[in-house]
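Appendix B. Extra example for self-study. Work through it before the problem class; the solution is given directly after the inputs so you can check yourself.
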Amino acid sequence: MAVARHGVAIAAFKFLLLISPLAIVVVLSVVVGSLMVVLFGYTSDQKAIAITKDQVKAHLLAVRLYRDQIPVVMSSYGKILRGTGRYLKLSFKPLLWVIVPITLLMVQVDRYLGAAPLPPNLPFLLTVHLTGQTSDALNDVTLVLPPEIAMTAPPVHVPAENAIVWRLVASKEGKYDVKIAAAGQSAAKTVRVGSDLARISTVRLRGQFWERMFSSAEPALPENFPVDSISINYPDRDIEIAGYGMNWIWPFFILSMVAGFIFKEIRGIRI
Amino acid sequence: MKKMRGQHITSGNAQKCRWLRWYFFLLLACVLFPTASHAYAGPGAGFAVLSSFWALFVPFLYSFYALVTWPFRQLFRFFRRRNVYGKATFERAVILGFDGMDPELADRFMKEGRLPNLAKLREKGTFSKLRTTFPPISPVAWSTFMTGVNPGKHNIYDFLARNTNNYLPYLSSAEIKGPKRHIKIGKYSIPFGKTEIKAMRKGTPFWHWLGNAGIFSSVIRVPVTFPPEKFQGVLLSGMCVPDLKGSQGTFCLCTTRTSNDKFREGGVRVPIERKNGVYRSYVPGPDNPLVEKAGELRVDFEISPEARSKSARFVFGSEKFTLKLGEYSEWIPAQFKAGMGVTAHGICRFYLKELSPEIEVYVTPVNIDPGRPDLPISHPVTYSIYLAKLYGPYATLGLAEDTWALNEHVLDDDAFLAQAYGNHEDRERMLFDALDKTRQGLCTCVFDTTDRVQHMFWRYLEEDHPAVRDVPQSQKRLVIQDLYERMDRLIGRVMEKIDDDTLLMVISDHGFKSFARCMNLNAWLHQNGYLTLKDGKSESGDWFEDVDWSRTRAYTMGLNGLYLNIKGREKQGIVDRSEAEALKKELQKKLNGLVDPASGKVGVTGVFITDAVYRGPYAENAPDLLVGYGAGYRASWDSVMGKVTGQIFEDNIKAWSGDHCIDPRLVPGVLFSSHRFVEEEPAIVDVAPTILKLFGLTLPSHFDGKPWTLAAQKNS
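Solution. Structure tokens for the complete assembly:
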């Protein structure tokens, strides 16, 4: 049963992928906004939040009711500040519970919606950063390309950054591996070419567990491989709304907030 | 076995700890890695940020506005205030109204050393009887208190007034009319326009005069202030605010007991039905405003009794709560949905009365929700919301203490007192907030607990009161003494908050006497040939159901008023105006000194022709005569409701055992003050002129009251 549900979820996501990135953002925002409200409801002290917010509103009204009495206004303002501090304190604990799942989720979503695959026949850069060694080591690095990808210029060595940059171009859509060889070992970096929604890894890293978790969608480079990172400058993906292109995070932020505010009213959750 | 359980717990805790460790590790990573910083802008963080921003930004704007405009406003007021406060004797006046506090009882308890704070006021300032109004009924007396005029100028003579077209009663203080126009869409009749609330009380409350001079007032729960009027200050309406049904308080008894009995007044019985092991019932609300003849709106609820813990779990709308036997709930929001997005917002409290063998739940009248008022109950409207946000929901109904429920034995003494003192504590909080906020000007608050508790517990003060004749002396309680001591402690706390620049006055609108015997004045009128019933009838139902108006010369309804059936005024009037004076005198002569044959006591000690008592533009709306009952007597419950019975005098066996709607000379109110007044016979009508004079204002010429003089002023 669980497998079937999982399958349905994957199928639904793939269906959304086929439709448009905006549809994904909308659906995701509504689902995440609603779920976060439920999670907030379960992990927060709802009664204390309700009382604190009511108190803040009361002092807010006092500012208006007694506006001719400056001592009352100032005292109310002080109470508003204290109440807001108390509210933030009460929100902190549920926020701790909310941040982790949402961060992990957004990292995964960003791999699909944060960058676009490389367009065919347009040059792109592949950069290899070596482990802190001498500049001779740069000469030792070689690149092995599949037939669909060609080098358009000789590699540029940047000794100050211990890096080599290749200018490449792909002739056909597809998923390819380019191989980087150094010190008798080699490692591959996936290159996505095309226009579809694909899981894109802009960089492959060695070690750096947390950095890899948040930035890379590929396995770690071999431990004794003299390369720190292999990266490709994929273009950013813009979500088009009313003719304006923007990073997916903005519509996600706004829509999830709206969904959350609507859902909180339905469920009677105080946030 | 114990060890194994312990191991299991340890293992469970260890697993939980590991989870928590991982969670916080992940959390730390999320926070520390800037590459994913955009991820924090999710909805969770967004809610907190937006809410906090809103909470800070809006008051900041308000405060900024208040600060920037303050010098200009102060400058504008400076000239007005300079005159006012320049001539003012006090910076602030605090008036505490204890509805029904009796001077004789207060004196007795002071002599017994039970009221040290009132005794301090007596020593330092004033303690005196305060002459009340004709009749000595709260809405009449408090209207006079606030306007400084006799009832002929403020138009309130009783709780009820009569419609001269049909002899039916209506509420004397306010008239609520729904929108005049409706748009019909299918079965719906959508109201178009606003609900109209017309104040029937005339005259200008003295805080309006203060406001005009730039003096701020906080006015809390003064009777007959509904609908609230605009002035410079804040006001929360008191007595006469209706419940959500539009009545003066309709409680609900939900019960599994089958009974066809109806409560005489003030309550309805609603069945609790059992289905699939769950008990279900409902709380009735207002009539559906959108569908004609659709009946009342309801909010259903479920009860799941738990016999072992002697409690029950309630699901009421979206609210879930558990009550133990004999326990009240908090105020629970009740939303009556009429459809098309129209909802009436109320609040009510549940009281678990019985669990076995039957289930009975008492529900208070559904009060207007002060946090979302469907009718204005304060000025400005935001004041009731402010108080609700600050202290939580509170009773808004004018007569919030459910005396009917105690009369009908739906509540017992303890449950009634718990309810009354719960409301009282809310009002104390409101008073102290108003004292904090009103450093200059007027702060006044009326507590009705004194009135309600004395009405319901006077029976314990008298050994032979018919309502407790069979209760042994040892079981009679000291409720009224406790009440006075509680009020004294309140005064003590108020005295700690004020200085010598503040005048503190404690007043009551009337005193109290026993209500042991009822007199049905309609029965007397019937037996003496002034009121005639339809042929074949010896008694009449409520509201003169069987009265033959074509042969009736006089009738009574309400507490003290006696009306002539005057031609041209009453629709079926037969008394010629030229005969009216003679008839009034005849009735006065016959009724005055009327003796109760059973006890030999005088049941009526004074009958007053109102032409001689009232002066003013609304005097014509007054009853023709006022009947002043003797101590121990009052109009019978039936007589008040226009019923004609066979018996004139009868015992009052209801818990409502003390009263004040009698001869006003027998029930003066009380006056205490922190500064000594030189006045032989102070009256409640003098309060308004006195306050205006103390603030240095010119008195309006239409005032009937005379301002009192301070002893210090007289000496100087």
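Self-check: The first helix of chain A runs from residue 2 to 19. If your reasoning did not lead you there, revisit section 3.
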